[in-house]
């Protein structure tokens, strides 16, 4: 194991070194939060793929393959579909807005404080996303070092908090590129073919497993529909995803770079399901499907390769964790705290915005680590987060982009009705039930349309300013200064 340990330690040290290097580039708010809005196609595609393919997509995706076979790919597949839809239909317009958060977009579109309540919902979502990613360190470090759960969470979380605090989005972008390469080599190029060969090839897998394992719809139509509703639509509106769109140097980069990343996700989904299916042949009676990834890595891979593949799993978790952390801190500072501060302090007060955002990442990071230590049921926490996100924010966000008759009153009603409905229905049906997000989303839509039609249309001047921003005109001067692109 010494060789495997060495690979992991080098990887972790490299993450911290990149954080230190990124600190020297992050000298403005734009540089710190969105990498100066100047990522070229290569870096944009790699970092976007890294942020959406986290521990759930890697360890969880293999676990679903172990339990359901090829149809276990659907969870990660719907993530890829969501990224493709975002990139093809919305990313160009989102990139041209030159904002930092989803809530800022809502304020621009509706001309009111629609972003206040949405900011609180988005903050809760990004916080829980960061927490669930951080908890995954316990599983990985347990396999690596037989480490205590709390110590593992503190170690993994501290490394992510350190490099994220130092360099903001620049550090996260650089580390995500490394993580993307490590995941590609570790999972797609090494673990996938080795797992298939160890299982005797596809013919042997077909002979030893039930026919349902080869049925692309074996996981069930209702489950697939729920995945689409939660993950595909969740990709369209999450702050962690939008903040990566904001890093693109142009709307063309956002569109085509995101399309490449989405296509990569589809391949990654299939790979995870195949690896899980192979693990079912090799270990038919594992205690938990989520143990499939660690078991096949630990027992079937040669020394050195095993360390690289475990580093790939660690990379998957770190990329999601760091992306969710900076999104959480950005929302907390820009959408919540800045509004409260603005209400009690002079508007002309000079502030060091990089220092402020760095402090918020540190504080949110400590909160994430503390919550991760205290929390046990990761699936329920993540389900609550996604249900609130989709049930409360999907309609007003997409409505703002697609329907000019939508009003600020309709948006606020949609967020409140959808959010409360989801909470109430989860209490009645259970957190893991499908009904809360189904009915919550429907009620959110009804409230949005009904209240928007019953209230005066959005002011023409607000809509004109909104159209200018969508067209790339009227952005803050500091945001349109030409800068060299990063490929």
UniProtKB/TrEMBL annotation:
The chain crosses the membrane at residues 6-23, 44-66, 72-92, 113-140, 152-173, 180-197, 217-238, 259-283, 303-332, 359-378, 384-403, 410-432, 438-466. It is found in: Membrane. It comes from the Bacteria. Pfam families: SSF. The keyword Transmembrane helix applies. It is a multi-pass membrane protein. Its main location: membrane. Keywords: Cell membrane, Membrane, Transmembrane, Transmembrane helix, Transport. The keyword Transmembrane helix applies. InterPro entries: Na/Glc_symporter_sf (IPR038377), Na/solute_symporter (IPR001734), Na/solute_symporter_CS (IPR018212), Sodium:Solute_Symporter (IPR050277). Gene3D superfamilies: Sodium/glucose cotransporter. Belongs to the sodium:solute symporter (SSF) (TC 2.A.21) family. This is Sodium:solute symporter. It comes from Streptomyces coacervatus.
């Amino acid at each position: 194991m010494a060789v495997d340990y060495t690979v992991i330690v080098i990887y972790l040290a490299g993450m911290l070194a990149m954080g230190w290097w990124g600190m020297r580039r992050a000298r403005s708010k734009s540089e710190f939060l969105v990498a100066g809005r100047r990522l070229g196609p290569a870096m944009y595609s790699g970092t976007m793929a890294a942020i959406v393919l986290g521990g759930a997509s890697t360890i969880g995706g293999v676990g679903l393959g172990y339990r359901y076979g090829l149809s276990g790919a659907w969870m990660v597949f719907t993530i890829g579909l969501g990224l493709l839809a975002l990139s093809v239909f919305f990313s160009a317009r989102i990139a041209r807005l030159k904002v930092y958060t989803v809530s800022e977009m809502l304020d621009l579109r509706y001309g009111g404080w629609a972003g206040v309540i949405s900011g609180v919902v988005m903050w809760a979502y990004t916080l829980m996303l960061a927490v669930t990613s951080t908890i995954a360190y316990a599983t990985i470090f347990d396999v690596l070092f037989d480490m205590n759960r709390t110590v593992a969470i503190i170690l993994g979380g501290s490394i992510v908090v350190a490099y994220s605090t130092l360099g903001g989005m620049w550090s996260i972008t650089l580390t995500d590129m490394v993580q993307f390469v490590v995941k590609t080599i570790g999972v797609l190029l090494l673990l996938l073919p080795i797992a298939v060969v160890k299982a005797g090839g596809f013919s042997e897998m077909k002979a030893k497993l039930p026919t349902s394992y080869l049925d692309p719809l074996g996981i069930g139509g209702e489950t697939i529909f729920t995945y689409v509703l939660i993950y595909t639509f969740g990709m369209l509106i999450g702050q962690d995803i939008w903040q990566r769109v904001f890093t693109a140097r142009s709307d063309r980069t956002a569109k085509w770079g995101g399309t490449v990343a989405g296509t990569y996700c589809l391949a990654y989904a299939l790979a995870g399901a195949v690896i899980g299916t192979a693990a079912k042949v090799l270990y038919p009676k594992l205690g938990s499907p989520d143990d499939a990834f660690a078991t096949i890595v630990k027992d079937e891979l040669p020394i050195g390769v095993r360390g690289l593949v475990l580093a790939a799993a660690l990379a998957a978790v770190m990329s999601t964790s760091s992306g969710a952390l900076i999104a959480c801190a950005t929302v907390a500072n820009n959408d919540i705290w800045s509004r409260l501060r603005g209400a009690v302090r002079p508007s002309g007060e000079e502030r060091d915005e990089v220092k402020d955002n760095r402090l918020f990442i540190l504080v949110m990071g400590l909160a994430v680590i503390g919550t991760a230590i205290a929390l046990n049921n990761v699936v329920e926490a993540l389900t609550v987060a996604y249900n609130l996100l989709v049930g409360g924010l999907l309609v007003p966000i997409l409505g703002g982009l697609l329907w000019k008759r939508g009003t600020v009153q309709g948006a606020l009603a949609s967020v409140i009705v959808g959010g409360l409905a989801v909470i109430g229905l989860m209490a009645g049906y259970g957190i893991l039930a499908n009904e809360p997000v189904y009915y919550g989303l429907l009620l959110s839509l009804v409230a949005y349309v009904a209240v928007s039609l019953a209230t005066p249309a959005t002011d023409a001047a607000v809509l004109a300013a909104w159209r200018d921003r969508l067209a790339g005109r009227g952005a803050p001067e500091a945001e349109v200064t030409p800068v060299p692109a990063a490929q």
